[in-house]
Amino acid sequence: RFNFDKDCPIFDGLYEFSQISTGGSIAAAVKLNKQASEICINWGGGLHHAKKSEASGFCYVNDIVLGILELLKYHQRVLYIDIDVHHGDGVEEAFYITDRVMTVSFHKYGAFFPGTGDLRDIGAGKGKYYSVNVPLKEGMDDESYENIFVPIISKVMETFRPSAIVLQCGADSLTGDRLGCFNLTIRGHGKCVEFVKKYNLPLMLLGGGGYTIRNVSRVWTYETSLALGVELANELPCNDYYEYYGPDFKLHIRPSNMFNQNTPEYLNKIKIRLLENMRTLSHAPSVQVQAIPEDAINLEPEGEDETDKDERLPQKNLDQRIVPENEFSDSEDEGEGGRRDNCTYKERKRPRLENGTDGKDATNHEEIKEELKPGEDEKDNSKPNTVNDVINLVI
């Protein structure tokens, strides 16, 4: 009745899960449209198999399609890149006959789910040649992947000239995945993110497949650091799930000895065919000027005066709070190294203040002065000597 198959079971919380996954991608698109962020990440998204009226491949709602539709409200052309081991059939189907979205999918092709993504699937109507499929074989390694990814995406950027990019970073193309059959390392997978980021266009990074959980955590952590421009150490820090990453407890993984069936001749043949297809596109398509539709999600912060003081502020309000780089909290400027939690500071003893004031405020200056006994500061040098010292300690 609801078009669910064996690989899309119904479970408790299914609707809430779909709301969170899809809402994240739509909200990311709104932020990119408003230029509130340069890169937005939704690792819970990337469900590229779902169709308009069909759940497929563990995907119930296609957040990618809805996110791209939101981007199209502000951008004339959007590029979608898929590096999941499976073909992004749901996204390709949604934009198969339009020239405003170009879909590029690098995937395992053959007797492999979902069975689509042939080299000859190029789009139809106005969308002819705007669907780019790169069918690959088992054992794809870092070097071979880079040799075909870079020239194809370079030509796509030159020909299509998008103003926004959506990159689906499915982790099942990594080596050792339970369902995948590629041999990519985390560095090789991350090079795709690095290359796309260099174009300095609004970029949405999405999750997707990935069935060896410890490697999914590794690669998306690494690619988040690439988006932020932060270098991570290879040694994993101690955490509640540390034992999952044994026996090496490292961020990066080694490729297996799987044989790479993608010969240079095979990859070169695919590359030539796809580059010839793109040469037929004379110019980047454009769209007529029209009124911008209303945003799917309102990210404008509500006035804090209008919110209930007993409830936690909405996340969109908290996102608007910007702390200057030269502003520090009390806990950051204490002790050695600039951090209080280094535990290198010497804790000062606080005076014992008795609540014997018949309900009066114990922090009253005169009462604090009376509580301090004469000669007490001579016995312990850490005790306060003046009322001002007491006030500072209380504060």
Automatic annotation (TrEMBL):
Active site (record annotation): 49
Biased composition (Basic and acidic residues): 309-324, 336-382
Catalytic reaction list: N(6)-acetyl-L-lysyl-[histone] + H2O = L-lysyl-[histone] + acetate
Annotated positions binding substrate: 7, 57, 211
Keywords attached to this entry: Chromatin regulator, Hydrolase, Metal-binding, Repressor
EC number(s) per entry: 3.5.1.98
Gene Ontology molecular functions: histone deacetylase activity, hydrolytic mechanism; metal ion binding
GO CC terms in record: NuRD complex
Histone deacetylase domain boundaries: 5-225
Keyword Hydrolase part of the UniProt annotation: yes
Keyword Zinc included in the entry's annotation: no
PANTHER family: HISTONE DEACETYLASE HDAC1 (PTHR10625:SF10), HISTONE DEACETYLASE HDAC1-RELATED (PTHR10625)
Name of the protein described by the UniProt record: histone deacetylase
